[in-house]
Specification:
Blueprint: H1 20-27, H2 36-49, H3 54-59, H4 61-67, H5 73-76, H6 81-88, H7 97-111, H8 117-122, H9 146-157, H10 165-174, H11 186-191, H12 200-206
Length: about 210
C-alpha cells in the first residue's frame, strides 16, 4: 500500500522509511534518456546488476558514480590496473572483477564507435506501433525482444561486454525506448492524460463526506 495513495507497478515497493525504489519508478524508469555519459552509466549499472536486485544497485548508485568518475567515458577509458585494484577494494560498490574490467573496456569501445552511443542505442528503439497497448501485468512484459537481441548482438560485435539480450532489454526499459509502466499505474495514466489511479483505501479517504 502506498502512503500517497497512488497505484504503481508492483515492483516499486520499498522497505518502511525508504522511497528509493518509488522515486526511481516515478521519476526515471521509462523516461527518455539521452547523452553519451548518461547512457554509459545505465549500461554499466545494468551490467553490474546482473544476478543481483536493482534495488541493490540503486542503493550503491552514488558510490558507483564517485568510483567511476561520474561515468565520464573519457575518464573511465583511461583507467589502469591501479584503478581496477582501487575499485576491487571499494566496499561501497559491487566488487566483481569481470564487471569492473568490462565497464572500463566498454568505455574504450565507446570511444571507438563509428557513431555516437546515443544514436547507436536509440536506433534499436522499437516502433511505437509495436507497443500500442500498455501491459496489464508484469507477466505480460517480455524479458527479451527482437530489438534487444539485435542490440546485444551489435554491441558485442563492436567490442562491448556484459550486454546480453536480457540486459539490453532492461536498458531499453530504463531509458524510455519503451514505456512498460502497467496500464493501471499512475505514471502511465498521467502520461496519457488520464486521472491517476488511486488505491481503494486512498479513494475512500478522498471521497467527500
Amino acid at each position: 500500500m502506498n502512503d500517497d495513495g497512488l497505484v504503481r507497478c508492483p515492483w516499486a515497493v520499498d522497505r518502511p522509511g525508504s522511497t528509493i525504489y518509488r522515486d526511481y519508478h516515478d521519476e526515471e524508469w521509462g523516461r527518455e534518456l539521452h547523452g553519451r555519459d548518461a547512457l554509459f552509466e545505465r549500461l554499466a549499472l545494468e551490467a553490474f546488476q546482473s544476478g543481483l536486485s536493482w534495488l541493490t544497485i540503486l542503493r550503491k548508485r552514488a558510490a558507483f558514480r564517485e568510483a567511476f568518475a561520474g561515468f565520464d567515458v573519457d575518464v573511465v577509458a583511461r583507467f589502469t590496473e591501479t584503478d581496477v585494484d582501487r575499485l576491487l577494494a571499494n566496499a561501497d560498490i559491487i566488487r566483481n572483477r569481470r564487471k569492473i574490467e568490462a565497464t572500463i573496456a566498454n568505455a574504450r569501445a565507446i570511444l571507438e564507435l563509428p557513431t555516437d552511443l546515443d544514436t547507436l542505442l536509440w536506433s534499436f528503439a522499437p516502433a511505437p506501433a509495436r507497443r500500442a497497448r500498455r501491459p496489464k501485468s508484469v507477466e505480460s512484459i517480455p524479458a527479451v525482444t527482437e530489438e534487444s537481441t539485435a542490440m546485444a548482438r551489435e554491441l558485442k560485435r563492436l567490442g562491448l561486454r556484459f550486454v546480453g539480450p536480457t540486459t539490453a532489454y532492461a536498458l531499453v526499459q530504463a531509458t524510455g525506448m519503451v514505456d512498460d509502466h502497467l496500464a493501471g499505474c499512475w505514471v502511465s495514466q498521467a502520461r496519457e492524460g488520464a486521472r491517476p489511479a488511486l488505491t481503494a483505501e486512498s479513494a475512500t479517504r478522498r471521497t467527500p463526506q
